[in-house]
């Protein structure tokens, strides 16, 4: 099979004058961008990076970041992107953990880099340099190679993503060219992308969703429109200016777009296909997104950094909450929450832990130097996701949350997602997050944190939950009205923050 370098080269040969990437007023055709990518690959080799070495890049979604990703694919270097919001401590830890051979950063990370001692490894800067010994990005790309650099094969390392850590340091997820290409091909197929698509490159390139959008566009001679960091006005301007045809975002970004005063359906009229991943989309938000975009295709994608795709539903609003069925390259099971082996499946409708077949073309093969994490997550050729869910009688998967997020109250297991979906349909609720807070009587008190559109009483919300069909024992015993619900940089609700900030035990009300 092709490696990723050959995949990009095929696009250059098919449509050399097609627009490949744009970043504000700057844009490149496939032919012009290939020339820059080759110069960058040559520059990386001149810095001393060899096939299999890891390059750490901490940068916003600018054209230079996308260029580095592709340069690594041609040179056989393992692209290792980091969150550009990282601290100096995070950055130093990642450089050490990855055994990085070079660091490339932009101005968003300059202060963190400057806080570290000047690294022994080469440092390349986009924008102001943190120390005199750093190279400019222009210097890196100054010379063209004497022949085309095309040094990777399908079995070589392509990428190492770091999963976001919650209670410990993040884990490295190494991925080969063949797995990355298989994931990109499946992404094209499952989102019904056509030649010449134009996508919004706003999901960060240190996240699997951002990488998938980048690779997918090159497979079909498409146009990747960089948005260095998410801003509603800049995003709407880019959609209008570049005639974006598809969006692939986390639910939070859809929420921010459609709730902004500058949003109008006319401004996003070019968008025909939309997809979401990274977190569940509540029933209420799904209805508002579909009404705002009126898409031809609305895809719910459920996956992870380790195995890109688990399940797909191409008609997401058909059955809100459903994640659909096993994707092109996957098999899925639901096993008991405490299962030790993948063979102990549970009946339809019963909630358990979701596991995925590691024989998938898209799968990783284990974490970077973390045998403890491998032992926890990999068993008998299956990946134990840590997610909870169940199959309904139609065979569709419903993802209900994380094993660690389950609320055990009064001896009952309660999933936050079910309560969040019910509350999201109340017209006064803009956003909601449900957690279990410590409680002497119940063990955990079901607590709903609400960001409202307009004032609403706890009594009204409680009546809404009962009227929606939510079992009485599942409804929140406490409501907390807050200005913002804490989220990660890629839009996942940070339940641990809510729990840490509001964990004073409180007496529960009687039913």
Automatic annotation (TrEMBL):
Gene3D superfamilies: 3.30.300.30, N-terminal domain of ligase-like. Residues 418-492 form the AMP-binding enzyme C-terminal domain. It holds the Pfam family AMP-binding. Keywords: Ligase. It comes from the Bacteria. Residues 10-368 form the AMP-dependent synthetase/ligase domain. GO terms for molecular function: ligase activity. Belongs to the ATP-dependent AMP-binding enzyme family. This is AMP-dependent synthetase and ligase. It comes from Alloalcanivorax balearicus MACL04.
């Amino acid at each position: 099979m092709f490696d990723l370098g050959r995949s990009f080269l095929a696009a250059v040969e098919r449509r050399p004058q097609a627009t490949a990437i744009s970043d504000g007023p700057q844009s490149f055709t496939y032919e012009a961008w290939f020339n820059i990518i080759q110069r960058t690959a040559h520059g990386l080799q001149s810095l001393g990076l060899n096939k299999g070495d890891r390059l750490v890049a901490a940068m916003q979604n600018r054209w230079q970041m996308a260029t580095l990703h592709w340069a690594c694919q041609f040179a056989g270097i393992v692209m290792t992107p980091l969150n550009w919001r990282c601290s100096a401590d995070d950055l130093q830890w990642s450089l050490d953990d990855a055994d990085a051979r070079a660091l490339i950063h932009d101005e968003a990370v300059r202060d963190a880099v400057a806080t570290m001692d000047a690294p022994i490894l080469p440092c390349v800067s986009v924008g102001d340099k943190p120390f005199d010994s750093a190279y400019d990005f222009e210097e890196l790309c100054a010379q063209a190679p004497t022949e085309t650099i095309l040094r990777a094969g399908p079995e070589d390392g392509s990428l190492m993503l770091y999963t976001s850590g919650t209670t410990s340091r993040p884990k490295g997820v190494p991925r080969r060219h063949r797995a990355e290409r298989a994931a990109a091909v499946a992404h094209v197929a499952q989102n019904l992308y056509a030649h010449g698509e134009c996508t919004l490159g706003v999901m960060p390139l240190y996240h699997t969703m951002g990488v998938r959008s980048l690779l997918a566009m090159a497979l079909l001679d498409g146009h990747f429109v960089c948005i260095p960091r998410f801003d509603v006005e800049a995003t709407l301007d880019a959609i209008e200016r570049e005639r974006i045809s598809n969006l692939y975002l986390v639910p939070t970004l859809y929420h921010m777009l459609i709730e902004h005063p500058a949003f109008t359906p006319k401004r996003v009229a070019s968008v025909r296909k939309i997809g979401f991943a990274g977190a569940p989309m509540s029933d209420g938000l799904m209805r508002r997104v579909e009404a705002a975009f009126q898409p031809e295709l609305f895809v719910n994608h459920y996956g992870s950094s380790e195995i890109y795709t688990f399940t797909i539903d191409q008609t997401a609003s058909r059955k809100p909450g459903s994640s659909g069925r096993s994707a092109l390259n996957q098999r899925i099971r639901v096993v008991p929450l405490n299962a030790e082996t993948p063979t102990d499946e549970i009946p339809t409708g019963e909630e358990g832990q979701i596991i995925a077949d590691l024989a998938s073309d898209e799968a990783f093969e284990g974490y970077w130097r973390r045998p403890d994490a491998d032992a926890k997550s990999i068993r008998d050729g299956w990946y134990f996701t840590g997610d909870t869910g169940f199959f309904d009688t139609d065979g569709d998967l419903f993802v209900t949350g994380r094993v660690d997020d389950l609320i055990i109250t009064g001896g009952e297991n309660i999933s936050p997602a079910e309560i969040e979906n019910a509350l999201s349909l109340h017209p006064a609720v803009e956003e909601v997050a449900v957690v279990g807070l410590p409680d002497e009587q119940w063990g955990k008190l079901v607590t709903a944190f609400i960001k409202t559109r307009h004032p609403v009483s706890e009594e009204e919300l409680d009546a809404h939950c009962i009227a929606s069909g939510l079992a009485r024992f599942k409804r929140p015993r406490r409501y907390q009205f807050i200005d913002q619900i804490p989220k990660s940089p890629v839009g996942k609700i940070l339940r641990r923050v809510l729990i840490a900030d509001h964990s004073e035990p409180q007496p529960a009300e009687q039913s």
